[in-house]
TrEMBL record:
Record pathway: Amino-acid biosynthesis; L-isoleucine biosynthesis; L-isoleucine from 2-oxobutanoate: step 4/4; Amino-acid biosynthesis; L-leucine biosynthesis; L-leucine from 3-methyl-2-oxobutanoate: step 4/4; Amino-acid biosynthesis; L-valine biosynthesis; L-valine from pyruvate: step 4/4
CDD domains in the cross-refs: D-AAT_like (cd01558)
Family: Belongs to the class-IV pyridoxal-phosphate-dependent aminotransferase family.
Entry EC no(s): 2.6.1.42
Alphabetized InterPro entries for the sequence: Aminotrans_IV, Aminotrans_IV_CS, Aminotransferase-like, B_amino_transI, BCAT-like_C, BCAT-like_N, Class-IV_PLP-Dep_Aminotrnsfr
GO molecular function annotations of the record: branched-chain-amino-acid transaminase activity
Cofactor: pyridoxal 5'-phosphate
Identification of the protein by name: Branched-chain-amino-acid aminotransferase
Annotated Pfam families: Aminotran_4 (PF01063)
Keywords, ordered alphabetically: Amino-acid biosynthesis, Aminotransferase, Branched-chain amino acid biosynthesis, Pyridoxal phosphate, Transferase
Top EC class for this record: transferase
Job of this protein: Acts on leucine, isoleucine and valine.
UniProt keyword Amino-acid biosynthesis present: yes
Amino acid sequence: MNWIFINGEYVRQEDAKISIYDHSFLFGDGIFEGIRAYSGNVFRLREHVLRLFDSAKALLLPVPYTVEQIENIVLETLSRNKLETAYIRLILTRGEGGGFSLDPFICKDPQFICITVAFDAFPEKYYNSGIEIVTVPTRRNRADVLSPQVKSLNYLNNVLVKIEAINAGVQDGLMLNTEGFVAEGTTQNVFFVKNGIICTPPCSQGALEGITRNAVMELAAGMGITVKEQTVTRHDIYTADEVFMTGTAAEIIGVVKVDGRVIGNGTPGEYTRRLYQTYKMFVLGSEIHTAQH
């Protein structure tokens, strides 16, 4: 069984436990990060850890370790599990609050957890043939109510979208904000290509500032491709030459049908394929953090 880091110790998976009175269990009061390791190379580990600290600061949630300590915990957990290609989940809970009070300031012993597992995302056929998505009824939480930049353990907004996508028989859902503009997918950012220009919704429209999103924008710019952040409508998506989604788990995956409308020629487009190939090379060689230490 896997080794799990939890609150200062490495324990076997079956022994990794938190209190049922932890605010993360009672109220979803905690944060997380999802990270990928490729052949011993942990992709943008520092950026993920810094984003964890940003989420914690927004929630006034104390982090019991430094950035460098968390990086070392990630590498040690991978090493103990003999994993070089893996998915990494960092979790920070508020801790036990002594009953059912909402008051976060009476909580004690925040739990920091690192889980590493062998991981593959979508089946290979989806990268070759693309996926289908639908616009879902559930809207993105308003940013002035619950910021999408906080990766909270209260992920119900996204869970509802995933339910609706599965019930529709497709691989993902397209989430709109309360004004009807495109925000993102269940766990992925959305891009479209039109006349050789790549566009994506700005984070102000309800999109997470994804680590993969930023990497793709940097790679595209380095390839001489114009990238724009702009308000995106469903009409933009329907009439795009290409649509693709990005995320830590899925990486870059082409979307070939949206709400029954075929995108482009119905296969992942040239820009999507080029970016995916470039990204796969990039993640294998761009970082200094390795799981071998």
